[in-house]
Specification:
By secondary structure, the protein is an alpha+beta fold. 20% of the residues lie in helices and 34% in strands. A hairpin with a 5-residue loop joins strand 9 and strand 10. The radius of gyration is 18 Å and the shape is globular.
Amino acid sequence: MREGPSFEPGFRFPERRIVRSPEYQRERLTVSGVAPEVWGRVSEPVLWALEGFRSMTEAGQDIDGYVHVEQRLRQVEPVPVGETVTFCGVTVGLDPVPRGRHLVQRFQVVRDDGRVAVVAEHVGLMPDPERMGGGGGRVAAPQQMEPLAEKRLTPDQVRVFSGDVGNEIHFDPDFAARYGYRAPLAQGLMTMLWMVGQLAAETGPGTPLDVVARFRRPVFWDDRMELLGRRSAGGRLVRLETRNDAARTTAELDIAELDVAGPDAGGRA
C-alpha cells in the first residue's frame, strides 16, 4: 500500500462543496436494505462518512486494502437533502497495531452559517498482508438480544454501494484472497447504514445522533445477516449488533444520548 501526505497527522484534506441528491441517497439506502422513506428529505448521516472515503481518494490516498475497523459518528443536527454543505477533514493519527497500523481521520459537515452538523471519525487498519487473516480476532460470545431484521447481501449490492469510492477489497476476489478473505468484503459503512436505519425508523430521521460502530468480523458480499438490538429499561435502543449465519457478531453499534451543547456542536475542529 502506497503512503502519501494524507497519512501524516495534521494533514488537512481539501475542502469540498457537496450537495446530496435524492437519487444518490435512494440508491444507497435501497441496496443496504433501508427503505428510503425512513429518511425522507433528511440526509442519511452514515453517507457523510462515505464521503470521507471520497475525500481520501481525491487527495491521492491509496485505500486499496484499507480495512475499516471503527466508525464514530455524531450528528448534532440533520441536513436536508439538496442543501449545499462544506466537507472538510484532517488526519488525526497513525499508530502501530498487531496486524498493521491504525489510521484515524476526522471529517466534518459544515453548514453555510458555520455550524458543524456532523462529525465522522474513521479508524482504518492499514494491513500488513503477512500478519492478516480472515478470522477477525477474538470477540466475546454473542449475548441474547431482540431480533429486529435480516437480509442477504449480493455482490451487485456491494458494488453499487462502494462503486464510487474504490478499494479493490470490495470488488476483486483475487485481491481479497491476498489478505486471507474467502470473497470480497461488504463495506463496514453498508452494515452501519442498515443499523442506523433501524434506529431512525424508531426515533425519527431528525433526532440527534451519537454512535460508535465497531466492525468485528468481515462481512462477505454474499452473506446472510441478522440485526439484533438491546434496549434500556425505558425501551430505547442502546445497542445494535449484526450477526452472520454462524451466529457470530460482525458489527456492534453503541448508541448514546447526544448532548447538543457538547464540544463538537459549536464550530469546526
